[in-house]
Write a structure and sequence with these properties.
The two termini are 45 Å apart. Helix 3 packs antiparallel against helix 10 and helix 5 runs antiparallel to helix 12. The chain is built from 18 helices and no strands. The protein is mainly alpha-helical. The protein is globular and about 80 Å long.
Amino acid sequence: MAWFADDLCFFSIALGSGILFSYPQISTIAGVQGLVVYTLSSSLPIMVFGLLGPIIRRKCPQGFVLTEWTRQRYGIITASYLSLLTLVTLFLYMVAELSALQQIVNALTGLDGLPAVIVECAVTTMYTSLGGFRISFVTDNIQGVMVVGLIILAVIAVGVETHIDTSLIAASGFLEPSLLGWQLIYILPVAVVTNDFFISGFWMRTFASKTDQDLLIGTSIATVAITLILGLVGATGLLAAWTGAYPGNPPQSGSIAFFLLLGQLPAWVVGIVLVMTVSLSTAAFDSLQSGMVSTGSNDLFRNKLNFWWIRAAVVIIIVPVVVVALESPSVLQIYLISDLVSASSIPVLVIGLSERCYWWRGFEVVVGGLGGLLTVFIFGTIYYGSAQEGAYLLLLENGLYGDDWSAFGAFVAAPIGGLLWGFGALALRLGFQWSQAKVKGHRFDALDRPSPTRPSFYTGNHAEAEELDPDREQVYTQGATDIKGKFF
């Protein structure tokens, strides 16, 4: 039943309290079409870890997170670059989680959400410091139970207490396709698939899985469960509109459609939902903290700095996280900024998974990733005719749900621009190395296939992985030369 633990872990990491804002919101803007696209775009990428995870585990058996394979394949500079992007992603996700929490407390109780945010940060910091990664795994299981309980309660309560006005169904237009709905078919898969690569929690669970079969079964079940839950949560946006709760008087943002619908339910239901939601947020936040600690300790300091110094640094980072969260009303916009960064960087990174692309190096990955973001800026400047608006597009200031092609263009420019810059960097590097070979009179070897590594065989549990799961099935290289990836 080891696959069941993997299932709960992936299931829990993918579901934070932010889903109560973003999925109902997309229903109120792009209707059923947008909800279906967003739901499938969020759940199906979990299968990527079940399919690519075994490949990366074999290539980097002593791995702990994705950056470990990056260090082995591309060298320390690229690994440090990816670690920085991972930390930025985790920072943004922590901001989104705390922003969602304070908005939830405010929406359900009318009280200031700041005290709840501070308490959550203090509690998660204390128990993750004492319990390490193991306690995060335990809370993931609790979080899974809480999500199921929340959904069952919400479905029953909504089914009994709400009354749909059938005249509002056709008037809402939510059953009709839209331009935005068609755009999202491209935008959301690109955004979510690439961004999941930066979530350390997913990779920690991938490397900690006992066997490849457990990993595949766990991710498959998690995908189905996440699809069902996100679909039900997002449907509250439709129900809120069809019951007249949304947009309300005065009109409210679609991001709080879930809570507008809850306003029609008895107070005891709202109270239980609040407790479960806070528990859900806490479990998600501790996973993000653990991921940040892991990335900082393993990737930046190679586990040579005392662990408590890393945890102290994470505690300090939480201060600006709270400040930004209180000033960030749009949870979805926070996610999208992170998605844009990943969309520019991941395509050039995964090229190295192919044995045929042995000539692809870290220089191309870094230039391609940064070039992708630069391409978004260039596109925005041309599209709007203003460099300032081009810069705002990097932050998606106009949101995803505009009536133009700016967001769509940004998510096209990021990956395609990244690949073009990457291959341009490849041509530049090969040209420079060929010139160097001619000048110095030695053979041009930049396209030589690297020597094969020795076979790996079992030598026991790795210390870091053992903390995650002492029974994990692992294979490690003994006596083989440590192969370091090349940046240039």
